[in-house]
């Protein structure tokens, strides 16, 4: 029943008899006391939460925020919030977290999803011929995916919940396993998706079976690089005096040390699997440089980097300072770190790790003489 049904269209007044026969006395009295206008308007919907009566996104947003403040909402909405909070807090490279979000919102470009929009694609899996190429098939059930999971050696209990859809499966993982294991699972899923795309365009790496294992290695190195900003592991060494030595690090995890008189003392390079972003790579380089300076016995150093954010974050870290007799951090322009970047782009970057204590390459000596004399 509509409100208009309770109004006499001829007199523009309440239909008293109908109201009394329809509602209990107390409600009838309340309705009859509501004044009516002289002119009847066309029935329309009114949004109660805006002054103009029209729905706006702004008013809906404010209503939602007010409900949250008052604790109004169902348990499922609160669980959703916890789910997304856990996803975005996983210690993973940003691109893998973004991939995890795409998986959970059913946003992967599988044939099943594409058919919902295009409606003419063959939904069979290009790699194994399965009838429905959906998220679960792509990441868990396809023979390529199964082979990659097998090579990773992860706990088989992870796949006990794969009779769910992909979003439910990830939620089940979050509820039953720790953050590190959940992060590893998403990293392997990311590797499977990338290798699947390469296979679709005939660019598959011959090492595709170990793609998941290499993804786990990359994530481990990413975590190590992030942790490098916060701590330096203890190592043994003989404390020694002398004047400060200058250490400079660049973004490709290379370092060189020079004495105050600008004599080149040592330099090194280390390669990592994967790319964690500019700041993470700068942190890796800085960590590598400080660690090698310690191992070489230098206890008085000036550490330089052309990444201002790294210098800002690390210069007040007391747990780093305590390992050296003297340490100072300085930001330099990119032109002042030429030697570090030259080492990174040299032919030596094919080595996993290489340290020079003597017999330095000619290009390094030339750059050092030009830059620091």
Give the SSE string: EEHHHHHHHHHHHEEEHEHHEHEH
Main beta-sheet strand count, sense and barrel state: 6 strands, mixed
**Number of continuous helical runs:** 16
Overall structural domain count: 3
The rough form would be described as elongated
What is the typical, i.e. mean, pLDDT?
Answer: 76
Q: Portion of residues in helices?
A: 40-55%
For the largest sheet, list the strands in their spatial order. Answer: 7-6-3-4-5-8
Structural class of the secondary elements? Answer: alpha/beta
Q: What is the β-strand count? A: 8
Description:
This protein has 373 residues and is α/β, with parallel strands linked by helices. The chain has three domains: 3-69, no CATH class; 90-228, no CATH class; 245-372, Ribonuclease H-like superfamily/Ribonuclease H (Nucleotidyltransferase, domain 5), CATH 3.30.420.10. The protein is built from 16 helices and eight strands. It has helices at 16-22, 25-32, 57-69, 75-89, 94-104, 111-118, 135-141, 143-152, 166-176, 179-200, 211-228, 278-295, 308-314, 318-321, 338-344, 362-372, and strands spanning 7-8, 13-14, 245-250, 254-258, 264-270, 300-305, 326-331, 353-356. It has a six-stranded mixed beta sheet, sandwiched between helices. A hairpin with a 4-residue loop joins strand 1 and strand 2. Helix 10 packs across helix 11 (211-228). The protein starts with 6 loop residues before the first strand and ends with a helix.
């Amino acid at each position: 029943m509509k409100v208009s049904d309770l109004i006499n269209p001829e007199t523009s007044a309440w239909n008293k008899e109908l109201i009394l026969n329809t509602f209990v006395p107390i409600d009838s009295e309340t309705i009859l006391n509501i004044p009516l206008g002289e002119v009847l308007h066309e029935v329309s919907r009114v949004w109660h939460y805006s002054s103009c009566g029209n729905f706006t996104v702004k008013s809906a947003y404010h209503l939602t925020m007010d409900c949250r403040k008052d604790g109004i909402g169902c348990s499922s909405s609160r669980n959703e919030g916890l789910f997304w909070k856990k996803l975005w807090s996983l210690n993973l490279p940003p691109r893998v977290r973004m991939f995890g979000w795409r998986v959970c919102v059913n946003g992967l470009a599988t044939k099943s999803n594409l058919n919902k929009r295009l409606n003419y694609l063959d939904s069979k899996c290009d790699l194994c011929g399965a009838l429905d190429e959906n998220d679960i098939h792509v990441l868990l059930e396809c023979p390529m995916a199964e082979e990659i999971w097998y090579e990773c050696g992860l706990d088989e209990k992870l796949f006990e919940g794969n009779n769910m859809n992909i979003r439910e499966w990830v939620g089940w993982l979050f509820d039953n396993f720790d953050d590190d294991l959940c992060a590893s699972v998403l990293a392997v899923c990311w590797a499977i998706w990338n290798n699947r795309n390469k296979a679709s365009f005939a660019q598959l790496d011959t090492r595709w079976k170990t793609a998941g294992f290499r993804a786990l290695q990359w994530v481990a190195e990413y975590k190590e690089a992030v942790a490098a900003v916060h701590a330096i592991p203890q190592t043994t060494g003989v404390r020694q005096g002398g004047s400060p030595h200058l250490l400079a690090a660049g973004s490709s995890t290379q370092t060189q040390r020079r004495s105050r008189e600008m004599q080149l003392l040592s330099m090194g390079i280390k390669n990592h699997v994967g790319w964690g972003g500019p700041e993470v790579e700068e942190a890796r380089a800085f960590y590598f440089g400080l660690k090698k300076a310690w191992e070489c016995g230098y206890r008085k150093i000036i550490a330089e980097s052309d990444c201002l954010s790294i210098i800002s974050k690390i210069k007040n870290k007391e747990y780093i300072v305590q390992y050296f007799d003297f340490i100072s951090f300085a930001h330099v322009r990119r032109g002042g770190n030429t030697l570090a970047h030259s080492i990174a782009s040299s032919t030596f970057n094919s080595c996993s790790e290489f340290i020079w204590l003597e017999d330095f390459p000619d290009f390094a000596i030339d750059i050092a003489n030009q830059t620091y004399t």
